[in-house]
Every structure is written in C-alpha cells, then in structure tokens.
Specification:
Number of helices: 10
Helix content: over 70%
CATH class of the largest domain: Mainly Alpha
Number of strands: 0
CATH superfamily of the largest domain: Tetracycline Repressor, domain 2
Largest sheet: none
Distance between the termini: 70 Å
Number of domains: 2
Shape: globular
Radius of gyration: 19 Å
Strand content: under 5%
CATH topology of the largest domain: Tetracycline Repressor, domain 2
Length: 211
C-alpha cells in the first residue's frame, strides 16, 4: 500500500509540475527534464508513467478536465430546466467550476486557451475530454430555450467558453480599464458578470430577426 501511495504521490507531483510548465512554456517549450526537476523526481519516472511528452500532456488535460467536468455535471443535474432562471443556472453550472479552487486557475486557463486554437492533437484532446460534457450542456440549454435552433445554441456555448477562458486567465485588465482595484474583485462578481453577458449573447443569437 505504501508503495502504491508513493507512486500516486509521485505521479501527482509530475502532473502538477507539468501543468505549470505547459502553461508557462507551451507544449513545444516545456522540457521533460525541467518538469522532472520541478516535480523532484527522476526523469525516468515521467517515461514510466506517461511514456513521452505527448502522453504527459494528455494526462494533464485528462486530469484537470475530469475534475472540472465532474463538478459541472453535478451542478447541472441540480438545475430545474423548466424554471424561469434555468438558462442563467445552466451557465453558472458551466462557468463556476473553472473559476473555483479546483479549476487550475490562470495556469490551466492558458493551456485551455491553447487547446481551443491548437493543432490536430489539441483538437482530439478537446473531443475526447470536453465534447461529451459540452453536448450535455447544449442539450440542457436547448430544453430551457424551446424553439431555439441547436446550431445557434452551439455557437452560443462555444462563444461562452471563449469568454470564460478570457475571464479565468485575465490579469486584472478589465478592472484597471474600468478604474477599479483588481485585488478587490470577488469571484461571485466575475461569475455574475459572465452569466449576464453570456446569457444576453445567447438570447440575442436565438431571437427572431426583426421585421
């Protein structure tokens, strides 16, 4: 049991170090030797657990997306899709977990930003680790917005993710430009702003064209 615990602890340290390295340096810039040094393990242990850098990168995405998506789906399951505020509650369920302590903060937001505009490898990782959960949220929005086209809701969902990534990774710029103190910004205020903005955008997308 102690040996298994030690292996698990070493694996987690590697993933923690790799997440920071991939966020700071990107996939191409992050080095296995530097990641091993930061994790305090032998470089051979990285190859033992993950085979190569591609495997390590995929494991970083799998771990963090699994944590975020589990919380998202738990929150989504508690939403009454027939309630008047269903759309806002669905969006809160989507956006709150990445903003919380398990979301990986700005480091993972930088990785996610790269995933959304990345190459074929990144597109496949998004498909594997995010598309099923995305479909659940699009289904929920489609139920809460009867009569809206799924295509419009899908666009709204994807634009919401872009907005969320920008919000998680921001360095206080919105506050500075608005004359506010970034250090006094509360997570709940950010969440409320995001929810209001994204809901308004989705409702504008599905509104019938003017006569």
């Amino acid at each position: 049991m102690k040996h298994q615990d030690s292996q698990s602890s070493g694996r987690d340290r590697i993933l923690d170090a790799a997440e920071i390295a991939f966020a700071d340096d990107g996939f191409s810039g992050a080095g296995m030797k530097a990641i091993a040094q930061k994790a305090g393990v032998a470089q051979g242990l990285l190859h033992y657990h993950f085979t190569n850098k591609e495997g390590l990168y995929a494991a970083v995405i799998e771990r963090r997306s699994g944590i975020i998506n589990a919380e998202r789906l738990e929150r989504l399951a508690a939403v009454d899709l027939t309630a008047p505020d269903a759309v806002a509650r669905i969006l809160r369920a989507l956006m709150e977990p990445p903003l919380g302590p398990k979301g990986g903060g700005r480091a993972y937001a930088r990785i996610l930003a790269g995933l959304t505009v990345g190459d074929a490898r990144d597109a496949e990782l998004v498909r594997l680790h995010y598309d099923d959960t995305a479909a659940r949220f699009i289904d929920a929005l489609h139920t809460a917005l009867p009569g809206a086209s799924r295509a419009a809701i899908s666009w709204g969902y994807n634009l919401a993710i872009g907005t969320l990534v920008a919000a998680v990774s921001n360095s206080g710029r919105p506050e500075r430009l608005g004359g506010a103190d970034p250090d006094k910004t509360q997570q709940e205020d950010v969440l409320n702003t995001l929810t209001t903005y994204v809901e308004g955008g989705i409702r504008a997308l599905i509104a019938p064209p003017p006569d």
